[in-house]
């Protein structure tokens, strides 16, 4: 397996509370990995540790050969949806993405437009994000995650607030990205998402991670 993420003996504590305990995981390229578990089981903490938004109490995370917090502060070449995507309400969807794209400045207007069209949004719409439905905001969050063509996607409940058509469209996008060789890690409460999309599934329970049969 061509390994792109390596997690070794990863533990995260918040005071006396252990949110993640001795997690080990190898993530290969070109697969979709599902992480299931109840709210508060540690899924979001794991995602934040992989990306660099949290620092581990013990253990280490290696992404694309670089240890997070040692070789680099944040994981590179990665698209993220963690918790509810936050956008500027007074800006259009396109202007929000353009603002975010300006942080790294690796893509232009055409790539932003393409990502919006791919998720079913009109890049020329003058509607402000504050007037978006929850489903539209979720689509915009997915567009933001994919617009820079990252090698890795980490998606926390990417189907939230989507109608049936939206769910089908996003599933198609994710399987297409996997077929292009992208690596996707997603958390979902929807059993069908996990069964349809995932090549491997892991269950998080009280901060411990274990492989689960499909």
Rg, alpha carbons: 17 Å
CATH architecture annotation name of the largest domain: 3-Layer(aba) Sandwich
Number of distinct helices: 6
The CATH class of the largest domain: Alpha Beta
Strand content is 25-35%
- Helix and strand run: EEEHEEEHHHEHEHEE
The structural class is alpha/beta
Number of domains: 2
Q: Please identify which CATH superfamily of the largest domain we are dealing with.
A: P-loop containing nucleotide triphosphate hydrolases
Strand order of the largest sheet: 6-7-8-3-9-10
Question: How would you characterize this protein structure?
Answer:
- The longest helix is centred in the last third of the chain and has 16 residues, at 164-179.
- The chain has helices at residues 43-51, 93-104, 109-118, 134-146, 164-179, 191-197, and strands at residues 3-14, 17-28, 32-36, 58-63, 66-67, 78-81, 152-156, 183-187, 200-205, 208-212.
- The model has no long low-confidence stretch (mean pLDDT 93).
- The protein is of the alpha/beta class and 214 residues long.
- A six-stranded mixed β-sheet has the order 6-7-8-3-9-10, sandwiched between helices. It has a four-stranded antiparallel β-sheet with strand order 2-1-4-5, covered by helices on one side.
- The relative contact order is 0.20.
- It has two domains: 1-77 and 151-214, Rossmann fold; 87-150, no CATH class.
- Helix 5 links the parallel strand 7 (152-156) and strand 8.
- It is built from six helices and ten strands; from the N terminus they run βββαβββαααβαβαββ.
- The chain starts with a strand and ends with a strand.
- Helix 2 (93-104) crosses helix 3 and helix 3 crosses helix 4 (134-146).
- InterPro entries: AAA+_ATPase (IPR003593), ABC_transporter-like_ATP-bd (IPR003439), ABC_transporter-like_CS (IPR017871), P-loop_NTPase (IPR027417).
- Residues 5-214 form the ABC transporter domain.
- This is ATP-binding cassette domain-containing protein.
- Belongs to the ABC transporter superfamily.
- Keywords: ATP-binding, Nucleotide-binding, Transport.
